Amino acid sequence: MKQINYIDIKKDFSLLGNPNLHYFDNACQTLRPRQVIEAMTKYYEDYPACGGRSMHRLAAQVTKQCEEARQIIASFIGAKRKEEIVFTRNTTEGINLVANSLNLKAGDVVLTTDKEHNSNLIPWQMFVKKLGIIHVIVPSKPDNTFDLEAYTQLLEKHSAKLVSMAMTSNLDGVSIPADKVVKLAHQHKALMLLDGAQAVPHHSVNVGKLDVDFLAFSGHKMLGPSGIGVLYGKFHLLEELSPFLVGGDTVSSSTYTTQEFLPPPEKFEAGLQDYAGIIGLGEAVNYLNRVGLSAIEAQELELNTYLTEAISSIDGLKILGPEDPKTRSGIVSFYIPGKDHHQIALMLDESAGFLVRSGQHCVHSWFALKQIPGTVRVSFYFYNTLEEAEAFVHSLKKVVSIL
Amino acid sequence: MFCIASFIILSIIAIFNAAYRDLAREAYDCVFRRITFKPCNTGFKEKMKAKLSGQLLNRSVRAARFFNHHFELLSWIFFILTIGSIFWTGKGLFNFYMYGSCNGLNKSGFCALDPKGENNKVSQAGGSCTSGTGDESKVTLNGVNTSIFPSINIGAKDSVVLIGCYSCDYTRKAYPTIKKLITENKVNYTFAHYPVKEETLYLLPIGYCAYKQNPTAYWQLNDQLFENSKEDIAKREFVDTLLQKNGYDIEAINSCISSPEAQSAVVERRIELEKTNIYGTPLLFINNKGLVGPKPYRVYERILKGFKFW
């Protein structure tokens, strides 16, 4: 396993040079290395043209760079071909694309877990109202881990058309057993859509091995620019899907009454694309490949293990999810009954520059169910250090002591 | 309460520092929600509480804990202090506008708008030109016979009585303003010379005799005594040239000032002026309202015109 070289990494992220700021909100979005910013700047400065349309040399360069990025991303997640990579704005758009392209009808069943991000909840709620689909929720175990038994029972009870679940929850960092979940879905003739926003940046995800049908993830959570995301889809499924957004560059020809759609991924990429974002995301994946996902996973585990142990002694503090940090990725989401989570987060920022997220993390439904007002969420990435985690614990204890 | 107090304070700071404008807007939103009975969900109070506690935490855990636990009480105190400050600031501004002093008419305490107290300074009798330290509330014209002093526009409805000294810096400062006041308004104007310094004591009988000899020329002489330097008017020869310029008979003036009548008139006038409880110059009475020290023109005009001023 590669070792993370912090001296080199520090040079790549300008914010890491600020000793008064400690960025622990990586589940929201990560920092961007210099290489990503430079790649995007290069596009804007050296070849700011349209890709896939014009024939001139700049346009050709844009097309080449974007297709290279597509290939890099395809390889990164183990896709068989780069045409299985559709560029979107983010995970939310990827999920919406699938939801709107599947031609769901009244009575179709969609299965999700009980702790989905709103991006994987609201689209289904809308279709329940609009189309009359059936949205079935798989409850988690009391420790917030995935209940495979309940899932199996529900699959057997309902003839699901689609299972749509977050691989790793942004709420508590807990992952579902994706391989088993996908296998069971397929056994029950259901398609499988995975929300990989919190998984793809943190550990190896191989769509080929998983045999997942769709995987959506975001660039901004994996060193890439904001406004660019990816939807992976098995090529034959993408071919079958109706395009969601249509228009410019999605068709090969059109008359006043008919149109000939391009093959995937073009038919899903309507309008002028975020070329700088695509190129930036390609560079971000290159960077992740250099650091190594196994090294990233190990670093996050070390930090999570330390933090979990260090803050568990704080009176009344409760961590969401299982006690074992191995099951919680780089996320430690905690609350102290009776203490305001926003106040804790703000005071951590104000007193020591620790930037953490507080609130319900776009999983309002789960918080409403559990009647918990919100949590403070610490989310690590590979550039965070043990020294920072130690300083965080010290500051947190100070903050809690005055509340 | 915290929102209201913060809104007031932040609005004032935001005028001078753009960095606080967003916070002021947030505070405004919070206040607006409160006064329109909408749920106050802006989180402004909580945000400020956390920010301030966080800052305090770096200095003293104890202070931060105290602040955090007693935030509501401290908010109330902050609110009351803010309202109190606004009231006193408003009162100060009102007083400054109305009387030229933040503390009110003839009150010489510290005023931020007149930090040196220029509008209340007087030259004390027998002393140098310094801030007056008399009882400002006791100055009065009651029982004072002003008819024995030089006057113009006798019988006019409004009256202005200036008791001043030719060598007093503050009377000299106030004089152009008072001159403007009596020129622009038809008033019964009386001037009484009250020397606070020895070098202009000799002008008392000269003034008496000059007014007696030629009342019209007296007012020109009076202007010139204020317009020329203190050093010049302290010299008899210089004053003689002024008398000559204004057509006075120097010999007759000399004869008058050495007469027992003039000596007695000087004493009589001094006794009369003491009845005003004067403790320094300039002392101005506008329609019997006493004003100590040189005030801005608006103060004089407002008192003279009363409601018509507005």
Structure keywords:
heterodimer; A: 403 residues; alpha/beta; Aspartate Aminotransferase, domain 1; Aspartate Aminotransferase, domain 2; 2 domains; seven-stranded mixed beta sheet; four-stranded antiparallel beta sheet; 14 helices; globular; B: 310 residues; alpha+beta; Glutaredoxin; five-stranded mixed beta sheet; three-stranded antiparallel beta sheet; 8 strands; 54% helix; elongated
Folded structure, characterized:
The complex is a heterodimer of chains A (403) and B (310). By secondary structure, chain A is α/β, with parallel strands linked by helices. Chain A has two domains: 6-30 and 292-402, Aspartate Aminotransferase, domain 1, CATH 3.90.1150.10; 36-290, Type I PLP-dependent aspartate aminotransferase-like (Major domain) (Aspartate Aminotransferase, domain 2, 3-Layer(aba) Sandwich), CATH 3.40.640. Chain A has helices spanning 6-12, 34-46, 57-77, 91-101, 122-130, 148-157, 178-187, 207-210, 235-240, 275-291, 293-312, 341-352, 364-370, 386-402; strands spanning 22-23, 85-88, 109-113, 134-138, 160-166, 191-195, 214-218, 229-233, 251-254, 259-261, 318-319, 331-335, 354-355, 357-359, 375-379. In chain A, helix 6 (148-157) packs parallel to helix 7 (178-187). The longest helix of chain A has 21 residues, at 57-77. Chain B is of the alpha+beta class and 310 residues long. Chain B has two domains: 2-99, no CATH class; 119-309, Glutaredoxin. A five-stranded mixed beta sheet of chain B has the order 3-5-4-7-8. In chain B, strands 2-1-6 form a three-stranded antiparallel beta sheet, covered by helices on one side. In chain B, a hairpin with a 2-residue loop joins strand 7 and strand 8. The model of chain B has no long low-confidence stretch (mean pLDDT 86). The chains are: A alpha/beta (403), B alpha+beta (310). Chain A binds chain B through residues 340, 342-343, 345-352, 398-399, 401-403, and chain B through 43, 46-47, 49-51, 53-55, 57-58, 61, 64-65, 68-69.
